[in-house]
Amino acid sequence: MPRFCANLSMLFTEVDFLERFDAAAKAGFAGVEYLFPYDVEAEAIKARLEANGLEQVLFNLPAGDWAKGERGIACHPDRVQEFREGVDKAIAYARVLGNRQVNCLAGIRPQGHDCASVEKTFVDYLRYAADKLEAAGIRLVMA
């Protein structure tokens, strides 16, 4: 039997982010996911999860400046440190929230970089993230 979780970035957008946890529970969901938790303190999210008996299923690694059209930085050769700091941040949030998997968004190929260098960067970043996440008991997923 399939199990579905509520994507709080897409559902219940008529209410503030933290109120979406209440709405998801009232709608019968047992788990939640969303694009990014980083604008809200992890402890505040955890309180909403616990208050509603919800499981935190998934969120994404930091993905650059979403408002400016970035959709991930894992293929950007010039952003190694930012990517690594994002992995650490995701691990810190996952430890508080209890999720056991994190998604990595590849991003859009940056101008001025050929496909081969972007592919190598992506593979290198994925290896780094997979090793760090595995050591923390978290699975790296690509969706």
UniProtKB/TrEMBL annotation:
Protein origin, superkingdom: Bacteria
Keywords linked to the UniProt accession: Isomerase, Pyruvate
Keyword Isomerase recorded: yes
Ranges of residues in domain Xylose isomerase-like TIM barrel: 21-141
One Pfam short name: AP_endonuc_2
GO biological process: glyoxylate metabolic process
Single GO MF annotation: hydroxypyruvate isomerase activity
Protein name: Hydroxypyruvate isomerase
